[in-house]
Design brief:
Layout: E1 3-8, H1 16-31, E2 35-40, H2 46-57, H3 63-87, E3 92-95, E4 102-104, E5 113-116, H4 119-126, E6 130-134, E7 137-139, E8 145-147, H5 153-164, E9 168-173, E10 194-196, H6 197-205, H7 213-222, E11 226-230, E12 238-241, E13 254-258, E14 261-270, H8 275-285, E15 290-295, E16 302-310, H9 314-328, E17 332-336, E18 339-345, H10 355-365, E19 372-376, E20 379-385, H11 389-399
Parallel strand pairs: 1-2, 1-9, 2-6, 3-6, 9-11, 10-12
Antiparallel strand pairs: 4-5, 7-8, 11-12, 13-18, 14-16, 14-17, 15-16, 18-20, 19-20
Helix pairs in contact: 1-3, 2-3, 5-7, 6-7, 8-9, 10-11
The structure holds aspartic acid (ASP) and magnesium ion.
Length: about 400
C-alpha cells in the first residue's frame, strides 16, 4: 500500500462527466489499498474566463484581487470532485490551500510555497478519507489568498508529495507521457518510460509544455518520484526521477524545440572591455530576458554581437538596441523573429563526444543552415530558420535513432 498524490489538470475535469470519470479512477486506486491525496486544477478554460471578467472592468486589476478571483476556479472543482467521490462510496473531503496551510510568500500571481503543514491532511487520511486539495493557491503570512502562477497546480501537487513524503506524485493530463519529440511534428516520436529531472527541465524550458517547470525543480530538490500519465488512456506514463548510476543511459533522450524566440544582432561594435555590458545592460533594465548569446572574434577592432530574446519582447529589444547602436557607433542592427531553436537533450551526453558533430552533419545533409549554436552539459541547441522546424526535428530524431525502442518489455 502506497501513499499517492494524484493531480488532475483542467482538461481532466472539464465537465461533470469527466469529474465522475476521475472519481472512478481515484476510487480504483483506493480499492487497491492506496492512500490518495488529490490535487485539482480549475475546469479547463475557467481561469481564462475569470481573468477575462476582471479585464472587462479594468486594464490593470489589482493582483491581490486577481488571486481572490482565480482561486475560486479550483474551489469549484474540489467540491464537485468530493461530491462525485462520495457518490462512488469513496469518502472524500475537500480543502482549499489555506485550509491545509499552504503558506506562500506575498508575491501575488506568482507566489512561492514556503511551507506546508501536512498534519491536517494526514489526519483526514487516517480517517480513511480521500483528501481533495485545490491546486494553484496558497495563503500568505497575513492570510491573503495567493496563486502560484499559471499551471501552478503541478507545483501544489509536487509540494504536497514532498511534505507528505508520498511514494509517487502522479500528474494526470491529456497526454500519456513525455515524448522523444513533439508527436504533432514527428509522428514517430516515442513515449519515454523514464527521464531524469535534468532532462525534463531542459525539455520543459525548451517548450515541451507538459509540466510547469517549477514543479520539476521542486521534485528534483525533494526527490519526489514524478509520473506523467493520461487521464483518458491506460498506461504507465513517464517517470521523472533522479539519474540512476546503474542505468544504461541512452545517449539522447529527446529533441525539443522552441518557437518563442527571436534573434538580434548589433554589427561592428568596438571590440573592447565593457561593450557586452553596454549592449545587454539596457535590455536587462527593460526586464527582457536573454537566452543565447554569441559574440564573434573581432576583426579590425570591431565585432558582431548576437543574442535571442522572447518573441514578445522582440520589438522592444530592437528599439533599445538601435539606441545602443548609435551610442556605440555600430554599423548596423539586424533582427529575425522567424527562427526556431532545436535542441538535442540527453544526460548520456556528458560522457560522450561527437554529439554536436553528428547533429551538424545531419542538418547539413538536409541543407539546413545553422544560425546560432549553444551547448550545455546535457544539450546542444541550434537556431535555424523557422521553415525548417519540421524537417529539422525529424532529421535529428532519426539521426539519433530515437524511434527505435530500447525498452524490451514492449
Ligand atoms: N487553473 C490554473 C491555470 O489555469 C492552474 C492550473 O491549471 O494548474 O493556470
Ligand atoms: Mg493546467
Amino acid at each position: 500500500m502506497a501513499l499517492l498524490v494524484q493531480k488532475f489538470g483542467g482538461t481532466s475535469v472539464s465537465s461533470i462527466g469527466c469529474i465522475q470519470a476521475v472519481a472512478e479512477k481515484i476510487a480504483i486506486s483506493r480499492s487497491e489499498g492506496h492512500d490518495v491525496v488529490v490535487v485539482v486544477s480549475a475546469m479547463s478554460g475557467e481561469t481564462n474566463r475569470l481573468m477575462g471578467l476582471a479585464h472587462e472592468i479594468s486594464d490593470q486589476p489589482s493582483s491581490r484581487e486577481i488571486d481572490v478571483l482565480l482561486s475560486t476556479g479550483e474551489q469549484v472543482t474540489i467540491a464537485l470532485l468530493s461530491i462525485a467521490l462520495d457518490e462512488q462510496n469513496c469518502p472524500a473531503r475537500s480543502f482549499t490551500g489555506a485550509q491545509v496551510h499552504i503558506r506562500t510568500d506575498s508575491a501575488h500571481n506568482k507566489a512561492r510555497i514556503i511551507n506546508i503543514d501536512a498534519a491536517r491532511v494526514k489526519k483526514a487520511l487516517k480517517a480513511g478519507e480521500v483528501v481533495v486539495i485545490a491546486g494553484f493557491q496558497g495563503i500568505d503570512e497575513d492570510g491573503n489568498i495567493t496563486t502560484l502562477g499559471r499551471g501552478g497546480s503541478d507545483t501544489t501537487a509536487v509540494a504536497m508529495a514532498a511534505a507528505l513524503e508520498a511514494d509517487e506524485c502522479h500528474i494526470f493530463t491529456d497526454v500519456d507521457g513525455v515524448y522523444t519529440a513533439d508527436p504533432r511534428i514527428e509522428p514517430k516520436a516515442r513515449r519515454l518510460d523514464v527521464i531524469t529531472y535534468e532532462e525534463m527541465l531542459e525539455m520543459a524550458s525548451l517548450g515541451s509544455k507538459v509540466l510547469q517547470i517549477r514543479s520539476v525543480e521542486f521534485a528534483r530538490k525533494y526527490n519526489v518520484q514524478l509520473r506523467v500519465l493520461s487521464t483518458f488512456k491506460e498506461g504507465d506514463g513517464t517517470l521523472i526521477t533522479a539519474e540512476d548510476e546503474g542505468m544504461e543511459q541512452a545517449l539522447i533522450s529527446g529533441i525539443a524545440h522552441n518557437q518563442d524566440e527571436a534573434k538580434l544582432t548589433i554589427v561592428g561594435v568596438p571590440d573592447q572591455p565593457g561593450v557586452a555590458y553596454r549592449i545587454l545592460g539596457p535590455i536587462a533594465d527593460a526586464n527582457i530576458e536573454v537566452d543565447m548569446i554569441v559574440q564573434n572574434v573581432g576583426v579590425n577592432n570591431t565585432t558582431d554581437f548576437t543574442f535571442t530574446v522572447n518573441r514578445n519582447d522582440y520589438k522592444k529589444a530592437l528599439g533599445i538596441l538601435k539606441n545602443t547602436a548609435s551610442e556605440l557607433d555600430a554599423s548596423d542592427v539586424t533582427g529575425d523573429d522567424r527562427i526556431v531553436k532545436i535542441s538535442v537533450i540527453g544526460i548520456g551526453m556528458r560522457s560522450h563526444a561527437g554529439i554536436a558533430s553528428k547533429m551538424f552533419n545531419a542538418l547539413s545533409e538536409e541543407g539546413i543552415n545553422i544560425k546560432m549554436i549553444s551547448t550545455s552539459e546535457i544539450k546542444v541547441s541550434v537556431v535555424v530558420d523557422e521553415k525548417y522546424l519540421e524537417l529539422g526535428v525529424r532529421t535529428l530524431h532519426s539521426a539519433f535513432n530515437l524511434e527505435d525502442s530500447v525498452d524490451l518489455g514492449g
